[in-house]
């Protein structure tokens, strides 16, 4: 089983040298990668063992830098080199990985056929600075990044909204707790239906 997992990781990453160790422990398998970038790549892609696709769970230490994957689309493979891509991105943010190519998935397995997309890894805060489109060379590339990276306009923070208690500039006295308000409505409203209560229970 150990070699099957190692082979599956090599197939997904197209390189066995990025794998540091595979360890069975307490009825679970732990896969250790040599870099946080390769760790993030493997978690996002998953592996296929004995014909079965397995989505991996990440247990990276919380004190490590939060890296996110940013994909660049609509760039001709043979017309724009990676140096130009890195130079353009470097003007906006700091890149923590080389430019890599996305491949086509077929019947649950990653093939060697490129689909035209390129991707890099960077810190979440830097990724939020990137626009949705970016001029790279003579072409306009579509920038795909995690949706939760949009910055909240009042504090510039990433990954939260106005009602989030983690916001550093949130004013508790002026912010309405919508969840508690709706639950109070449920308790006091004389015509509140059971269907309404089901919806409220999901908040």
Describe the protein in words.
This protein has 203 residues and is of the alpha+beta class. It folds into 3 domains: 2-54, no CATH class; 67-149, RRM (RNA recognition motif) domain (Alpha-Beta Plaits, 2-Layer Sandwich); 171-203, no CATH class. 26% of the residues lie in helices and 29% in strands. The chain contains 6 helices and 9 strands. The protein has helices at 2-13, 36-45, 82-90, 124-127, 178-188, 194-200; strands at 19-25, 28-33, 47-49, 52-54, 67-73, 100-106, 109-123, 133-136, 139-144. The strands form 3 sheets. It has a 5-stranded antiparallel beta sheet. Strands 1-2 form a two-stranded antiparallel ribbon. A two-stranded antiparallel sheet has the order 3-4. A hairpin with a 2-residue loop joins β1 and β2. The longest helix is centred in the first third of the chain and has 12 residues, at 2-13. The protein starts with a helix and ends with a helix.
């Amino acid at each position: 089983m150990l070699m099957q997992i190692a082979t599956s990781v090599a197939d997904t990453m197209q390189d066995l040298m990025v794998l540091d160790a595979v360890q069975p422990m307490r009825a679970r398998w732990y896969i250790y990668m040599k870099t946080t970038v390769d760790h993030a790549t493997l978690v996002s892609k998953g592996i296929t063992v004995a014909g079965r696709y397995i989505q991996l769970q990440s247990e990276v230490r919380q004190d490590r830098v939060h890296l996110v994957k940013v994909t660049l689309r609509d760039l001709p493979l043979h017309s724009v080199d990676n140096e130009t891509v890195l130079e353009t991105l470097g003007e906006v943010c700091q890149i923590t990985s080389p430019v890599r190519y996305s491949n086509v998935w077929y019947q649950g397995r990653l093939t060697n056929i490129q689909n035209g997309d390129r991707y890099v890894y960077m810190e979440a805060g830097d990724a939020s600075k990137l626009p949705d489109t970016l001029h790279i060379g003579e072409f306009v590339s579509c920038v795909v990044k995690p949706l939760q990276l949009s910055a909240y306009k009042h504090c510039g923070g990433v990954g939260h909204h106005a009602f989030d208690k983690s916001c550093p500039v949130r004013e508790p006295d002026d912010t309405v707790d919508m969840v508690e308000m709706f639950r109070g409505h449920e308790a006091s409203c004389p015509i509140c239906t059971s269907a309404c209560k089901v919806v409220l229970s999901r908040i």
